[in-house]
Amino acid sequence: MSYLKILLISLLFAGCKDDTGISVGDNEILVEYQQTVTKEIDGEEWTVAFESIKENSLCPPDATCVWLGRIVVSLSINDEGVVLGYGDLSTDTEERALQNQVIIDGTTISFSEAIDYIENNTTKIVLVFE
Length: 130
What we know:
Layout: H1 2-14, E1 28-32, E2 36-41, E3 44-56, E4 70-77, E5 80-87, E6 101-104, E7 107-117, E8 122-129
Antiparallel strand pairs: 1-8, 2-3, 3-4, 4-5, 6-7, 7-8
C-alpha cells in the first residue's frame, strides 16, 4: 500500500513540471522559442509569443562557467512588443539598459528563468506575472 502512495504523490508533483523539469506556478508562463502560449492568470488571459533571441551567451547546462552569461529575447505579450534579458545585464552595448521585467496593464512581468538546450537547439523561458 505504501508503494501506491509514493507513486500517487510522485505523479502529483510530476504534473507541476514540464518535460525539462522546470516548475511552473499558477502565475507563471513557460514558453519555448518560436512558440506562442496562452494562459489565464488571476482572471486575465495572457498570450506570450517567444519571437526571437537577440543575444545568447548563457553558460550551457552541463558546463562549469565563471560567468553566467545572458540571454536577450524579443517577445510579444498580448500583442505588445517587449525585449527582456536574463542573466548578467550589467554590461550592455546598447544605449538603453537591458531590463528583466516590464509592466503591462498594471501587471509586472519578470523574466525569471532560461533553459538553453544547445544539443537540440531549444530554448525555454519562464515569465512570472505579479
